[in-house]
Amino acid sequence: MEWFILFIVGLVGGIIGSLMGLGGGVIVVPALLYLGSYGLIGDMTPQLAVGTSLVAVIATGLSSTLSYYKKGNVDIKSGLLFFIGSGPGGVFGSWVNGYLNATTFSLYFGLFIILISFLLFMQNRLSPITRSSNSNSLKKVYIDRDGTTYEYGYHLPLAVFISFVVGFTSGIFGIGGGALMVPAMLLLFRFPPHIAVATSMFMILLSSFTSSLTHLFLGNIDWLLTIMLVPGAYLGAKIGVYINTRLKPVTVVRLLRLFLFIFGLRMIIDGLL
């Protein structure tokens, strides 16, 4: 029975994670804690849930990246540049995880996520942070399958700093980091939604790997649970990519706003309880 339940958890996490570029940990971590509280999978600490989730997120990130790459939606260069920040951030966050008062942090992190969801309503009123004359700035052009041209770009030091914060939260919560990175790419850098989601999954693949190594060193991974989660996460990621590429960009943003609001509200409730 546990195998089936964890396969479904991985499947749902993979679908949600790859569909919106979130990574899938937003589903897997609370599910593991919930199942552990009822004794269905043995004792489950927040640290063990985070470390185990991050390994499953690697499977989601790998499956999503391969699928998105075949469709030409992954901005490889930007993903690698973002990893300059998210990699060390993930390692640091994984280390801090062992000392964190997760209850208090869940409350404030939930409020922050809800703030991001509201900021997404203002997306069309914000301009990308680009300085084409500055050597630290990058500007790009993307033409989608409908022939629509998008111009986006970012100031490199700012992008690296944001991705460090993203990696840090990923290492702490095991959520992959896309809950912060995708809104940042949409709001600050004006990435096309499909490119933002695909590139976020590529960065999540890289940062989750480094974070997982840290949690492995700290003994925070349950390999039996991981084996149960990974097949569902890998398959779910492919399903999420299939759905994403058939949605209009505005639909992806609307779904992201709704999911972030629900996720933020859930974290606030967890913090209060």
Structure notes:
Its main location: membrane. It is a single chain. The protein has one domain. Helix content is 72%, strand content 5%. It has helices at 2-20, 25-37, 46-70, 76-97, 102-119, 156-173, 178-187, 193-217, 223-244, 249-272; strands at residues 137-143, 149-155. A two-stranded antiparallel sheet has the order 1-2. Strand 1 and strand 2 form a beta hairpin. The protein is globular, with a radius of gyration of 17 Å. The mean pLDDT is 83.
**Taking strands numbered 1, 2, ... along the chain, how are they ordered across the largest sheet?**
1-2
Q: What string gives the helices and strands in order? A: HHHHHEEHHHHH
List the domain count as a whole number: 1
Give the fraction of residues assigned to helices. over 70%
Specify the number of helices: 10
Output the radius of gyration: 17 Å
Runs in which pLDDT lies below 50 for 5 or more consecutive residues are none
Backbone structural class? mainly alpha
Intertermini distance: 29 Å
Summarize the structure.
With 273 residues, the protein is mainly α. The protein is built from ten helices and two strands, in the order αααααββααααα. It starts with a helix and ends with a helix.
Descriptive terms for the model:
single chain, 273 residues, mainly alpha, two-stranded antiparallel ribbon, 10 helices, 5% strand, globular, transmembrane helix, Probable membrane transporter protein
Write the layout of secondary structure elements.
Layout: H1 2-20, H2 25-37, H3 46-70, H4 76-97, H5 102-119, E1 137-143, E2 149-155, H6 156-173, H7 178-187, H8 193-217, H9 223-244, H10 249-272
Helix pairs in contact: 1-2, 1-3, 1-9, 2-3, 3-6, 3-8, 3-9, 4-6, 4-8, 5-7, 5-10, 6-7, 7-8
